[in-house]
Amino acid sequence: MNRSMRRDMVAECFGTFALVFSGTSAIVINDLRPGAVSSLGIGLTFGLIVAAMVLTFGKVSGAHLNPAVSLGLCLAGRLEGRRLVPYWFGQCAGAFVGSGLVSVLFPDHSGLGATLPVGGVYPSFVLEAVLTLILMVVVLGVACGMPGDLHAMALAVGAVIALEAIFAGPISGASMNPARSLAPGLLSGQTGSLWIYWTAPFVGAGLGVALSHLLFDLKKEKSS
Q1: What sign does the dihedral 123-129-131-133 (CA atoms) show?
Q2: Eight-state DSSP code of residue 83
Q3: What are the structural domains of the chain?
Q4: Which H helix or E strand runs over 173?
Q5: Which of 10, 45, 84, 148 is the most buried (most CB within 10 A)?
Protein backbone atom coordinates (compact mmCIF):
# COMPACT_ATOMS: atom_id res chain seq x y z
CA MET A 1 0.00 0.00 0.00
CA ASN A 2 1.52 3.33 -1.06
CA ARG A 3 1.64 6.52 0.98
CA SER A 4 -1.30 8.12 -0.82
CA MET A 5 -3.55 5.14 -0.16
CA ARG A 6 -2.55 5.02 3.52
CA ARG A 7 -3.28 8.73 3.83
CA ASP A 8 -6.73 8.25 2.28
CA MET A 9 -7.47 5.33 4.60
CA VAL A 10 -6.48 7.32 7.69
CA ALA A 11 -8.57 10.30 6.55
CA GLU A 12 -11.61 8.05 6.02
CA CYS A 13 -10.97 6.43 9.39
CA PHE A 14 -10.85 9.71 11.30
CA GLY A 15 -13.74 11.24 9.39
CA THR A 16 -15.99 8.23 10.01
CA PHE A 17 -14.87 8.15 13.66
CA ALA A 18 -15.98 11.78 14.03
CA LEU A 19 -19.30 11.03 12.30
CA VAL A 20 -20.17 7.99 14.41
CA PHE A 21 -18.93 9.45 17.68
CA SER A 22 -20.77 12.74 17.26
CA GLY A 23 -23.99 11.38 15.79
CA THR A 24 -24.49 8.42 18.09
CA SER A 25 -23.45 10.48 21.13
CA ALA A 26 -26.28 12.87 20.28
CA ILE A 27 -28.72 9.94 20.21
CA VAL A 28 -27.43 8.51 23.50
CA ILE A 29 -27.47 11.87 25.28
CA ASN A 30 -31.02 12.50 24.08
CA ASP A 31 -32.04 9.10 25.47
CA LEU A 32 -30.36 9.71 28.82
CA ARG A 33 -31.60 13.30 29.06
CA PRO A 34 -34.92 13.24 27.18
CA GLY A 35 -35.36 16.30 25.00
CA ALA A 36 -31.86 17.61 25.64
CA VAL A 37 -30.90 17.21 21.99
CA SER A 38 -34.23 16.38 20.24
CA SER A 39 -34.79 14.66 16.90
CA LEU A 40 -34.04 17.93 15.15
CA GLY A 41 -30.77 18.27 17.02
CA ILE A 42 -29.75 14.71 16.18
CA GLY A 43 -30.38 15.30 12.49
CA LEU A 44 -28.41 18.54 12.56
CA THR A 45 -25.55 16.85 14.43
CA PHE A 46 -25.16 14.25 11.68
CA GLY A 47 -25.44 16.85 8.93
CA LEU A 48 -23.03 19.32 10.49
CA ILE A 49 -20.32 16.79 11.31
CA VAL A 50 -20.45 15.45 7.76
CA ALA A 51 -20.18 18.99 6.39
CA ALA A 52 -17.20 19.69 8.63
CA MET A 53 -15.44 16.47 7.60
CA VAL A 54 -16.03 17.19 3.90
CA LEU A 55 -14.37 20.59 4.32
CA THR A 56 -11.53 19.01 6.31
CA PHE A 57 -10.79 15.90 4.25
CA GLY A 58 -12.41 16.58 0.90
CA LYS A 59 -9.04 17.34 -0.70
CA VAL A 60 -7.43 14.34 0.98
CA SER A 61 -9.67 11.32 0.42
CA GLY A 62 -12.87 12.88 -0.86
CA ALA A 63 -14.43 12.41 2.61
CA HIS A 64 -16.82 9.63 1.66
CA LEU A 65 -17.21 8.41 5.27
CA ASN A 66 -19.60 5.77 3.98
CA PRO A 67 -18.96 2.38 2.28
CA ALA A 68 -22.08 2.77 0.13
CA VAL A 69 -20.94 6.17 -1.16
CA SER A 70 -17.47 4.78 -1.88
CA LEU A 71 -18.97 1.89 -3.85
CA GLY A 72 -21.19 4.31 -5.75
CA LEU A 73 -18.26 6.52 -6.67
CA CYS A 74 -16.33 3.44 -7.76
CA LEU A 75 -19.23 2.30 -9.96
CA ALA A 76 -19.42 5.82 -11.38
CA GLY A 77 -15.74 5.68 -12.32
CA ARG A 78 -14.77 8.40 -9.86
CA LEU A 79 -12.83 6.20 -7.43
CA GLU A 80 -10.16 3.68 -8.43
CA GLY A 81 -11.22 0.12 -7.74
CA ARG A 82 -7.98 -0.67 -5.91
CA ARG A 83 -8.83 2.01 -3.35
CA LEU A 84 -12.25 0.63 -2.48
CA VAL A 85 -11.21 -1.97 0.11
CA PRO A 86 -8.79 0.40 1.94
CA TYR A 87 -11.59 2.98 2.05
CA TRP A 88 -13.99 0.42 3.50
CA PHE A 89 -11.42 -0.73 6.03
CA GLY A 90 -10.74 2.83 7.17
CA GLN A 91 -14.44 3.66 7.41
CA CYS A 92 -15.34 0.56 9.41
CA ALA A 93 -12.32 0.94 11.70
CA GLY A 94 -13.22 4.56 12.40
CA ALA A 95 -16.82 3.60 13.11
CA PHE A 96 -15.75 1.00 15.66
CA VAL A 97 -13.41 3.43 17.41
CA GLY A 98 -16.17 6.04 17.56
CA SER A 99 -18.77 3.61 18.85
CA GLY A 100 -16.30 2.10 21.29
CA LEU A 101 -15.62 5.52 22.78
CA VAL A 102 -19.35 6.13 23.16
CA SER A 103 -19.67 2.84 25.05
CA VAL A 104 -16.87 3.91 27.42
CA LEU A 105 -18.37 7.35 28.04
CA PHE A 106 -21.93 6.10 28.47
CA PRO A 107 -21.69 2.57 29.96
CA ASP A 108 -25.28 2.69 31.23
CA HIS A 109 -26.71 3.04 27.73
CA SER A 110 -27.17 -0.33 26.07
CA GLY A 111 -28.16 0.86 22.59
CA LEU A 112 -25.13 3.02 21.68
CA GLY A 113 -27.22 4.79 19.04
CA ALA A 114 -27.74 1.66 16.95
CA THR A 115 -30.07 2.00 13.97
CA LEU A 116 -33.27 -0.02 14.31
CA PRO A 117 -36.29 -0.44 11.98
CA VAL A 118 -38.86 1.18 14.28
CA GLY A 119 -41.37 1.52 11.45
CA GLY A 120 -41.09 -2.11 10.33
CA VAL A 121 -38.65 -4.05 8.16
CA TYR A 122 -40.16 -3.34 4.73
CA PRO A 123 -40.68 0.44 5.17
CA SER A 124 -37.22 0.76 6.72
CA PHE A 125 -35.53 -1.13 3.88
CA VAL A 126 -37.26 1.01 1.26
CA LEU A 127 -36.51 4.20 3.17
CA GLU A 128 -32.81 3.36 3.55
CA ALA A 129 -32.52 2.56 -0.16
CA VAL A 130 -34.33 5.71 -1.25
CA LEU A 131 -32.47 7.94 1.20
CA THR A 132 -29.14 6.61 -0.06
CA LEU A 133 -30.26 7.01 -3.67
CA ILE A 134 -30.98 10.69 -3.02
CA LEU A 135 -27.65 11.11 -1.21
CA MET A 136 -25.76 9.47 -4.08
CA VAL A 137 -27.42 11.66 -6.71
CA VAL A 138 -26.60 14.77 -4.67
CA VAL A 139 -22.95 13.72 -4.27
CA LEU A 140 -22.51 13.00 -7.98
CA GLY A 141 -24.51 16.04 -9.06
CA VAL A 142 -22.34 18.43 -7.06
CA ALA A 143 -19.16 16.58 -8.05
CA CYS A 144 -20.04 16.94 -11.74
CA GLY A 145 -21.63 20.38 -11.63
CA MET A 146 -19.16 22.09 -9.32
CA PRO A 147 -16.02 19.91 -9.35
CA GLY A 148 -13.56 20.71 -6.59
CA ASP A 149 -15.92 23.09 -4.75
CA LEU A 150 -15.74 21.70 -1.21
CA HIS A 151 -18.03 24.38 0.20
CA ALA A 152 -20.78 23.41 -2.22
CA MET A 153 -20.24 19.72 -1.50
CA ALA A 154 -20.22 20.24 2.27
CA LEU A 155 -23.40 22.34 2.14
CA ALA A 156 -25.30 19.99 -0.17
CA VAL A 157 -24.28 16.71 1.47
CA GLY A 158 -24.56 18.01 5.03
CA ALA A 159 -27.99 19.46 4.29
CA VAL A 160 -29.40 16.33 2.65
CA ILE A 161 -28.11 14.10 5.46
CA ALA A 162 -29.59 16.40 8.12
CA LEU A 163 -32.91 16.62 6.30
CA GLU A 164 -33.17 12.87 5.77
CA ALA A 165 -32.17 12.15 9.37
CA ILE A 166 -34.80 14.56 10.69
CA PHE A 167 -37.77 13.13 8.80
CA ALA A 168 -36.78 9.47 8.39
CA GLY A 169 -34.80 8.89 11.57
CA PRO A 170 -37.90 8.03 13.64
CA ILE A 171 -38.81 5.25 11.16
CA SER A 172 -35.62 3.60 9.89
CA GLY A 173 -32.88 5.39 11.81
CA ALA A 174 -31.84 7.13 8.56
CA SER A 175 -28.45 5.47 8.52
CA MET A 176 -27.66 5.46 4.78
CA ASN A 177 -24.28 4.17 5.94
CA PRO A 178 -23.31 0.52 6.55
CA ALA A 179 -20.29 1.42 8.72
CA ARG A 180 -22.33 3.78 10.90
CA SER A 181 -24.83 0.96 11.60
CA LEU A 182 -22.36 -1.93 11.87
CA ALA A 183 -20.27 -0.63 14.76
CA PRO A 184 -22.98 0.27 17.32
CA GLY A 185 -25.05 -2.72 16.20
CA LEU A 186 -22.28 -5.22 16.90
CA LEU A 187 -20.99 -3.54 20.06
CA SER A 188 -24.49 -3.31 21.55
CA GLY A 189 -25.46 -6.82 20.42
CA GLN A 190 -28.37 -5.53 18.35
CA THR A 191 -27.59 -7.45 15.20
CA GLY A 192 -30.98 -8.75 14.13
CA SER A 193 -31.67 -5.91 11.72
CA LEU A 194 -28.13 -5.20 10.53
CA TRP A 195 -28.86 -6.89 7.21
CA ILE A 196 -31.15 -3.98 6.32
CA TYR A 197 -28.37 -1.44 6.80
CA TRP A 198 -25.85 -3.59 4.96
CA THR A 199 -28.00 -4.14 1.89
CA ALA A 200 -30.39 -1.22 1.39
CA PRO A 201 -27.71 1.53 1.26
CA PHE A 202 -25.71 -0.40 -1.35
CA VAL A 203 -28.89 -0.94 -3.39
CA GLY A 204 -29.69 2.76 -3.12
CA ALA A 205 -26.16 3.78 -4.08
CA GLY A 206 -26.27 1.57 -7.16
CA LEU A 207 -29.62 3.00 -8.21
CA GLY A 208 -28.29 6.49 -7.58
CA VAL A 209 -25.37 5.88 -9.90
CA ALA A 210 -27.67 4.47 -12.59
CA LEU A 211 -29.91 7.53 -12.38
CA SER A 212 -26.92 9.87 -12.34
CA HIS A 213 -25.68 8.37 -15.62
CA LEU A 214 -28.85 9.79 -17.17
CA LEU A 215 -28.49 13.18 -15.51
CA PHE A 216 -24.79 14.06 -15.38
CA ASP A 217 -21.54 13.63 -17.25
CA LEU A 218 -19.83 11.23 -14.87
CA LYS A 219 -16.65 11.20 -16.93
CA LYS A 220 -15.61 14.59 -15.63
CA GLU A 221 -12.97 15.11 -12.93
CA LYS A 222 -12.56 12.04 -10.72
CA SER A 223 -12.35 11.98 -6.95
CA SER A 224 -9.37 10.52 -5.09
Answers
A1: negative
A2: G
A3: 3-215 (1.20.1080.10)
A4: none
A5: 45
